[in-house]
Model the fold of this input.
Amino acid sequence: MAHEHKLEIFRGLIKFKSNEAKIWGVFTFLSIVTIIEVALGIIKPEVLIDNRFLAMKLLNWIFIILTLVKAYYITWDFMHMRDEKKSLRRAVVWTAIFLICYLVLILLIEGDYIFDVYKSNYVKFDF
Amino acid sequence: MEATVAKTGTEGKTWGGGNQPLNASYGKMMMWFFIVSDALTFSGFLASYGFSRFKFIDSWPIADEVFTHFPFLHGVDAPMYYVAFMTFILIFSSVTMVLAVDAGHKMQQNKVILYLFLTIIGGAIFVGSQAWEWATFIKGDYGAVETKGGKILQFLNTEGERVAIADFATKIPTARNVHEESNGVWYMAEPTQTTFSFEEVKAGFLADESLLVRTQYLDENGFPTVLSREESIAKIVNDGKIVVEGANLRHNEYGTPLFADFFFFITGFHGFHVLSGVLINIIIFFNVVIGTYERRGSYEMVEKVGLYWHFVDLVWVFVFTFFYLV
Done:
């Protein structure tokens, strides 16, 4: 099918000579991101644990954002989403993202609500 | 494409059926839409994991204390390292897969064979690692006591280090008759017995002044609450019920059983995807070896299974984050 590959990543900051070079470049990038994640997970810097943004620890924000970055490059470069037509890209990506965000939002709010009910209820459950 | 769609003879015209508005063949597009639906299944699992975790946000097990083992390094506390290794294996097998797809575009049969072979090896290593991870989790570490309310009590010494129940439980000589299926009124054998009974653990705990109990509730710093000696004794004597060793779907020595349930279910479902991915890769591998795609003139089939394989990697990225990091 699509034999031409777009060889730029980081919005054109890096342009690779061949598709093979791009694959190794993206692999290097993904490895660096994973190493950062693992290192942060082992060290757990206190600054990032004690401070919160929107009720979540900064460390967890970093983990989730880095995960999404990894997911983007796996989809765009390994799965060749970058080379697909815009219509296919949107049919696949937007559908999934919208439904997942909706589900996660609803379930997490509900879970937090049930936590509050357990915490301030009149039924003893910790025995 | 040509094999599945009848020619209409009007392919040149706009509505003649020859158009590919998304510029993707039928097979590839359907693989994408299958991936969308599978992604929704996985996000359903992960979102329900998040739901349960938010529900018990003050008593959820800390992953760093659960997954601390590395093969051949017994007794060494190595949280995260093994799962990081597994992540690299999977990312690397994704790289070899995309190299195989790239070689397929250039019609280089031998390179496709080599890279697909490496991908299969990587997948096999990953599945094996996951089996080991499961076995370690099921076997358990220190053992714990479960209360009547199903909460977990773990044991510490005065330095705050974990103590295994085997180290302090006193052996009480008892004679018990094993209930066998053949003697039963109904076909029920007794469940697996733990190494020590609750009475033995209790006696050992009361005899050793240096032991303390840790509950699964987290304090404001995110560490499990440690009780004083008096509180510990009261907790064990009043609330303790059974001994738990390791984890299964009903009991989990690391904390709430839901953690074990989700761990088995989500990593199991993902592992099943890896397994089926490896099997599909093997089929395609042999097709490449016997030259099926060489004769067909297109290696698009490699690209399609490649999509599935990358998807498995993509899911692992999320499982890794939400089970081990966050």
